[in-house]
Design goal:
Blueprint (H helix, E strand, L loop, with lengths): L1 H29 L7 E10 L4 E4 L4 E6 L6 E2 L4 E5 L2 H50 L5 H47 L2 E3 L4 E6 L6 E2 L4 E7 L3 E8 L11 E5 L6 E10 L4 E2 L14 E9 L10 E7 L1
Antiparallel strand pairs: 1-10, 1-15, 2-9, 3-5, 3-8, 4-7, 5-6, 7-9, 10-14, 11-12, 11-15, 12-14, 13-14
Length: about 300
């Protein structure tokens, strides 16, 4: 009895295995690439200009946040300011130095004007004393003294002009120092890089930040796109201009229609939604971006289902 049962079991197993292989072959035939008329993938909603991180260019302490998350703003709007007490004190000190140096320059310019006038008078006196000495109506000593005074005044003029050049150079240096300090102070103000919206802040007033610290995320104004990835098997079937549907993930509920506006010119590793560290799949993908016709129907950062019609 045992000998009859064993071969029968093997025969049933073989028949079942053959049947499974035939079923698999039939299933594969149903999914030929040429017969596919749409591609579905998970997509992320983001601005066409991409989300930009707002960063600190200088060390400081957050003094005030001027706009709230989700507020629509114009380019150049003051978003955030750091404590500027020390910088303002330095600027006041530099202003005082500049004022002192400006007065020094004015003083030297006045001195030069007075010296020029003295030189003009001394030149007339030396000419007169020289003529008198030649006519023996005056002394040689008087002529010598007049000539000596004239030359001394010319030497004083050279010194005064040199001092004026140095004073002006010192003044320019102080002005440059003020400009540099003002630039550093202004770096403690964070402005909107373009029209758009602050999506989130990652800091709060009173918090100290370093150079390169991320302060928040900024979304530039413009169209919204759904960014998805298409498997390399179907990569060549996606074209710019193809229509697409943006649905609630896992449902048939359409949020908006759309159109393919970008297809990456190369294949890359999965990156957008590859959250698992143990995902060792070696397939490559093509990034595709779909412009959304109704931006108000979706939220930036949300995941949706993107159905591209081939």
């Amino acid at each position: 009895m045992k000998n009859i049962f064993f071969p029968l079991a093997i025969l049933i197993s073989i028949l079942f295995s053959c049947s499974s292989k035939e079923d698999k072959k039939v299933n594969l035939e149903k999914y030929k690439v040429e017969q596919i008329n749409q591609i579905t993938g998970v997509a992320r909603i983001e601005p066409i200009g991409k989300i930009s991180p707002l960063g600190a260019e200088i060390i400081g302490k957050i003094a005030k946040i001027h706009v709230v998350e989700g507020q629509i703003i114009k380019k150049g709007t003051l978003l955030l300011s750091m404590d500027q007490t020390l910088d303002e004190a330095q600027l006041a000190q530099i202003d005082s130095k500049i004022n002192t140096k400006q007065q020094h320059v004015l003083g030297l310019e006045a001195k030069i004007s007075a010296t020029l006038l003295k030189i003009e008078i001394a030149d007339k006196e030396r000419q007169r004393d020289k003529n008198l000495a030649s006519a023996q109506a005056g002394t040689q000593k008087a002529a010598f003294d007049s000539e000596n005074n004239f030359e001394n005044l010319k030497a004083e003029l050279k010194i005064a002009k040199a001092e004026l050049m140095e004073a002006k150079a010192n003044l320019e240096e102080a002005i440059a120092e003020k400009k540099y300090t003002g630039t550093l102070l202004d770096k403690k103000n964070i402005y909107a890089p373009s029209d758009g919206m602050v999506l989130s802040w990652e800091i709060k007033p009173g918090e100290a930040v370093n150079i390169g610290s991320k302060l928040g995320d900024f979304a530039p104004d413009g169209d919204l796109i759904a960014t998805t990835e298409v498997d390399e098997l179907f990569a060549m079937k996606v074209k710019i201009g193809q229509k697409a549907s943006i649905n609630v993930q896992g449902t048939n509920q359409e949020l908006s229609s759309g159109k393919v506006i970008y297809c990456a010119p190369y294949l890359s590793k999965k990156s957008i939604f590859n959250d698992r560290a143990d995902n060792l799949e070696d397939r490559r993908v093509r990034e595709v971006r779909v412009k959304i016709d109704n931006p108000k129907a979706v939220l930036i950062g949300s995941r949706v289902e993107c159905i591209i019609k081939l």
